[in-house]
Design goal:
Length: about 270
Amino acid sequence: MTAINEAFRKLKSRGEAALIGYVTAGDPEPQVTPKIAEALIKGGVDILELGLPFSDPIADGPTIQAASVRALNAGTTPRKVLEMARAIRKRNDVPIVVMTYYNPVFRMGLNSFFDLAKDCMVDGVIVPDLPVEEAGDYRKAAGACGVDTIFLAAPSTSTQRLRKIVECTSGFLYLVSHFGVTGTKAAVEESTIQLIKHVLPYTKEHVPLAVGFGVSKPEHARCIIEAGADGVIVGSAFVNIVHRNQGNIGRMLEELRDAACKLKEAIMH
């Protein structure tokens, strides 16, 4: 059983859902990321998602795009992100997932990337622009290193393709809650609730279901969990806090911890 599977199992036994927190690694500077991770974990984040900054993040909205630019300008590289994961993992039991586009993985080479990911104690990897149909070699390399391959499903995913994605994903299935890119939303749309209910029969008894894109408030998280999801993924809300407080790291960490605490409390039972 992988660390991610074990985390979901423990949470379920306690009647809790998973809070998965995303931050862009290296934003605002590489040395701050481990401190941000500690603040989120203290606040209640159960799984930490580190975004590997990329120059053309097609799935991300303006908030995370800007964070990627800041991180790249600060000298963040794929190798540095993986080393950040190791530094964080050595101090915490919380599983770490790296979210990256395929180009950095391709340039490093599949085996080299996953060998380093394993050495840096990374538990799972998400690649939004890698289709499941073309992921055979990728899954093989990840599996050989004990790293979960986390695929995404979207509102437009056909039933036939959803079955294939559920069959191939491990750790959890990342369900994109709405069309478009990442970013905070005012409310959870009814279409998101119906989407969760549509996907649940395929994931139940197979893999945990985590919902992301637009989740930013405790009431959003509660609504999604009450609809049946096993976890919620919060990204832009945390990245916004980092952006607002670049000049005051202490206040940044306090706000991150507080925001994570409120989100976690909303999905405890």
